[in-house]
UniProtKB/TrEMBL annotation:
Domain of life: Archaea
Domain UspA: 3-138
Record CDD domains: USP-like (cd00293)
SUPFAM superfamilies according to UniProt: Adenine nucleotide alpha hydrolases-like
Name by which UniProt lists this protein: Nucleotide-binding universal stress UspA family protein
Family: Belongs to the universal stress protein A family.
Signal peptide: none
Length: 143
């Protein structure tokens, strides 16, 4: 089976990676890090690259995923795969977890007040509400 960890450009991604690595080692599972960029961000990057006549290798989503995964090798001892996707982050993470039949999803979150939870949607909340797979949430306190 596979442990799927959703990462982003945040500092919290290293804590998510470390927790996912613990699970992968405990179960002897594969480890996949998924990074999703919204379509508007994807379009912005593509336009910027065309303006700069950038002919870099790899797809935009894979390059962004590799950038988001920078530093993960310092906290992960398992072999891992980095996956890039474009679209709604909550939806794409759940779709990928279903695609690979993930044992667990590992996501980040912030400890927020009830009002904060009601007013601001979150990728974590979307994942929790739209998957039937076990989800491990690595939280950080809201500042």
């Amino acid at each position: 089976m596979v442990i799927v960890a959703a990462i982003s450009d945040s500092d919290q991604s290293l804590a998510i990676a470390a927790e996912a690595d613990k699970l992968a080692r405990a179960f002897g599972d594969e480890l996949h890090f998924v990074h999703v960029i919204e379509e508007t961000e994807y379009t912005r990057i593509v336009e910027k690259q065309s303006d700069m006549r950038d002919t870099g290798t790899g797809s935009v989503e894979d390059n962004e995923a590799a950038r988001a995964a920078s530093g993960i090798e310092e906290v992960v001892s398992s072999d891992y795969e980095i996956v890039g996707r474009v679209g709604n982050p909550g939806k794409k993470v759940v779709e990928y977890a279903d695609e690979v039949d993930a044992r667990y999803l590992v996501v980040g979150g912030r400890s927020r007040s009830p009002v904060g939870k009601a007013v601001f949607g979150s990728v974590t909340q979307s994942i929790l509400l739209n998957t039937d797979r076990p989800v491990v949430t690595v939280t950080e306190q809201e500042t």
